[in-house]
Each structure stands twice: as structure tokens, then as C-alpha cells.
Design brief:
- The strands form two sheets. Strands 4-3-2-1-5-6-7 form a seven-stranded parallel β-sheet, sandwiched between helices.
- The mean pLDDT is about 95.
- The protein is α/β, with parallel strands linked by helices.
- It has 16 helices and eleven strands.
- Helix content is about 45%, strand content about 15%.
- Bound molecules: nicotinamide-adenine-dinucleotide and magnesium ion.
- The site of magnesium ion has 4 residues, from helix 7.
Length: about 400
């Protein structure tokens, strides 16, 4: 039996992961489930999965969960805080860690899973954006395995040459094509963008996701974060990656080879496919996802992204080109700006303005250690909040 710890089990990726695990009770057991504050959600999951451990971010929430589980006769050990997350990922009975906490909060536990030499199923792209070099070094040092869950990167992983080391060029790869749907505002008149609501931004045409990544998809910051993620995962340079708008979300990404071949991975837009792929790799197993009906899909469209409409995509590429802690600064400013938009403090079109201000205000440094990265993250959060709290700045 393979023991799986799910970080962020009450979220969109966490729930999809448990769905897939439920199809294969003969192969996987759940070791630990974790969430931020959702006591009721984690309680229900514990009743169903009876994990040995459960972790909540908050100590009072953890005491509450512990009492409820005791009355239900469960022996699940409940703990709280960042240290508890680092402990459950490193347990000997944890073989695989699904890293599905949203945002910078996912960095430390995901890094702990790498340092414990586990198979890391990486949904938390923010980890790689903030600490790509450190994270990839630690994976190698501790012999951990990384399987990408982000649908595009999972597609790329599936289309990459199977064996052999060396650079992309040495392996015959000329380019990586990252597809993105363009989100809910791909065709919205630009003049209406300042008035779009969080509800509209979170209503993605093809994917059902958490609120933060939904807003990131609407601004296309998500695709920018994914370009950075792909650079680290596949050791690619920025100019080896092309972003392509593909509204149907059926072609999940493509690898272009020196001989003119282009390999793509296709499927219905359902995260259970990459999750099942990463859990079963190098084998294949059922994900509960219907086969793609190409005749019903009918057509596949592709177009170039419009940087005017999606300034966040441009900012992300610029941050990666700047290097150092710039991507960590970008990520932190984006998290603060997205939260302010969701709280109706700023407009949708203020998001890139807050991020651009933060990137211009901060001097980047060498992201040599976790401490440096976390300091840049904190500084960027303060700077973005300053901008947001200054009403005259807003569009
Ligand atoms: P979500 O908001 O639905 O769930 C987030 C989970 O993390 C929840 O279980 C929540 O309790 C937990 N969490 C949040 N803040 C926390 C904190 N401070 N400490 C501990 N736990 C915390 O998010 P999601 O859509 O499932 O996305 C999770 C990650 O996967 C993100 O990094 C996202 O970019 C990535 N991802 C998601 C999708 C998708 O389809 N949802 C696709 C690709 C990548
Ligand atoms: Mg993605």
C-alpha cells in the first residue's frame, strides 16, 4: 500500500485527489489530511478516510476537530501549525505528498516533503515561483521525485522525451507551448474590465477551481506563474516557452521537437487526469474521467495572447527575466492584490497596477536561502498593501 498525505485536502485539488484515491482503495491509504480553518470539511473527510493524522493551521480549530473526532470514536491525531505540516509530510508511512495548499503558505511544507525524499505531487505552483532554484536543488539533494499536477506541466511531462539527461536542446526539444484558455474575460470589452466582479472573475468557462487561481486565470497571471514553473521544472529558458490561447482547454500543452514533430496531451478539462497520472506514474490507472469525444469538441482554436488585455502575463515574464527574488516579489504582490480584489477593496484592473508598483519599489536579491525568499515575500506584501491602502493610486 502507498501512503498518501494530502496538504490542502479540503480545497479543489484536495477533493479531486481524494476522489481519485477512492477509486483505488487497494493501492493507496491516506496517512494525513490537512486544511487551513475548515473544521467541518476536515471532520467529514476524517470520518470517511480515517487518517492517522489531521492538521489545521489554527490551534483552536485543531482542538475543536480533535474533540469532534474523539466523540465520533476516531483515533486520528490532530495537531496544528507549520511544524505539524512538516512532520506529517516526513512520516515514514507517507510515501507520496500531494502539495495542494494555495499560495506562499504551501512553500515550507512542500519543501519539507522534498527534504524528506518523498514523491511530491506538485499542485502548489507558488512554491516553484518563489523558490524554484532552491526547491529543485533540494529535490536532487534528497532524492525526492517531482510529478507536476498543474494540467499544463503534467501534459508537458507526458510529452517530454522519456529517458536521458541533458539540456532540452540535447534531447531534441526546441520549444515548450503552454496553452491557456484566456479565462472568463477573453472577449470582454476592455472598457468593462474595471467593473467586473469577483463572482464573474471566479466563473471560469472550463475549470472549477479555488478562488485565488480562478482570479489568476482571469488576469492570466496564472499563465505567467506557469511559465516560471515550466522554466524550473524543465530547465527551460524563457525564450523556449510560448504561451498560446486555446479557449477549449482540451490540448493541455505541447512539446516541439527539432524534427518538426509536436507532441500534445489532450483530455477533458478535469484535474483528476493529471492527479491519477502522477499517483500511478509510470503506470496508468483510472481517474473517473470520461474519455474525450473529439467529434463533440468539433474544433480546436489557437491564438496569440493579447498583452494589453493581460498585463499580468507581461509582468510575470518580466519578473522571471529580472531573476533573483523578483518572481517571489511578483507572487506575493499578486496574492495580496487578488485577496484585495476578492474583498472588493480594489478593482480587477488594479491588480496589475499594485503588482507593477511593488516590483518597481523593491530591490531584488539572490534567492540563496529560504530566509531571503521569505523576507522578500514579506517586504512585497507590505509594499502591495501600502499601494492598496492609498485610494488615489487606483484605476
Ligand atoms: P483551494 O483554495 O480550493 O484550496 C486550498 C487548500 O489549501 C484548502 O484545503 C485550504 O484549507 C488550504 N490552505 C489555504 N491556506 C492555507 C494556509 N495558510 N495554511 C494551510 N493550509 C491552507 O485551492 P485549489 O484550487 O485547490 O489550489 C491549490 C493549489 O493548486 C494552488 O497552488 C493552485 O495554483 C494549484 N492548482 C489548482 C488547480 C485547480 O484546478 N484547482 C489547477 C492547477 C493548479
Ligand atoms: Mg494550469
Amino acid at each position: 500500500m502507498i501512503g498518501v498525505t494530502v496538504l490542502g485536502s479540503t480545497g479543489s485539488i484536495g477533493i479531486n485527489t481524494l476522489d481519485v484515491l477512492g477509486l483505488h482503495p487497494d493501492r493507496f491509504t491516506v496517512v494525513a489530511l490537512t486544511a487551513n480553518r475548515d473544521v467541518a470539511g476536515l471532520y467529514r473527510q476524517c470520518l470517511q478516510w480515517q487518517p492517522a493524522y489531521a492538521v489545521l493551521a489554527d490551534a483552536e480549530a485543531a482542538r475543536q476537530l480533535s474533540r469532534q473526532l474523539r466523540s465520533a470514536g476516531l483515533k486520528t491525531q490532530v495537531s496544528s501549525g507549520a511544524a505539524a505540516l512538516a512532520e506529517v509530510v516526513a512520516l515514514p508511512e507517507t510515501d507520496y505528498v500531494m502539495a495542494a495548499i494555495v499560495g506562499a503558505a504551501g512553500l515550507e511544507p512542500t519543501l519539507a516533503a522534498a527534504r524528506a525524499g518523498k514523491r511530491v505531487l506538485l499542485a502548489n505552483k507558488e512554491s516553484l515561483v518563489m523558490a524554484g532554484r532552491l526547491f529543485m536543488e533540494e529535490l536532487r539533494r534528497y532524492g525526492a521525485e517531482l510529478l507536476p499536477i498543474d494540467s499544463e506541466h503534467n501534459a508537458l511531462f507526458q510529452c517530454m522525451p522519456a529517458a536521458g539527461g541533458g539540456s532540452l536542446a540535447e534531447r531534441g526539444v526546441t520549444r515548450i507551448l503552454l496553452t491557456g484558455s484566456g479565462g472568463p474575460f477573453r472577449e470582454t470589452p476592455l472598457a468593462q474590465l474595471p467593473r467586473v466582479t469577483p463572482e464573474q472573475a471566479c466563473a471560469h468557462p472550463n475549470w472549477d477551481m479555488g478562488r485565488k487561481i480562478s482570479v489568476d486565470s482571469a488576469t492570466m497571471m496564472n499563465k505567467g506563474l506557469e511559465v516560471i514553473e515550466a522554466c524550473w521544472l524543465f530547465d527551460a529558458a524563457l525564450d523556449q516557452i510560448q504561451v498560446v490561447i486555446h479557449p477549449q482547454s482540451v490540448v493541455h500543452s505541447l512539446v516541439e521537437y527539432a524534427d518538426g514533430s509536436m507532441l500534445a496531451q489532450l483530455g477533458n478539462p478535469d484535474m483528476r487526469t493529471p492527479i491519477a497520472h502522477a499517483l500511478a506514474w509510470p503506470q496508468r490507472m483510472a481517474a473517473g474521467v470520461a474519455a474525450l469525444d473529439l467529434v463533440q469538441v468539433g474544433r480546436l482554436d489557437f491564438e496569440a495572447p493579447d498583452y494589453n488585455r493581460f498585463p499580468c502575463l507581461r509582468l510575470a515574464l518580466a519578473a522571471m527575466a529580472a531573476g533573483g527574488t523578483a518572481p517571489a516579489v511578483l507572487n506575493a504582490a499578486n496574492e495580496v492584490a487578488v485577496q484585495a480584489f476578492l474583498n472588493r477593496q480594489i478593482r480587477f484592473t488594479d491588480i496589475p497596477l499594485a503588482i507593477a508598483y511593488t516590483l518597481e519599489s523593491i530591490t531584488f536579491s539572490d534567492p540563496a536561502s529560504l530566509a531571503v525568499i521569505l523576507e522578500s515575500d514579506a517586504q512585497a506584501r507590505r509594499t502591495a498593501r501600502e499601494w492598496i491602502d492609498q485610494p488615489r493610486n487606483r484605476a
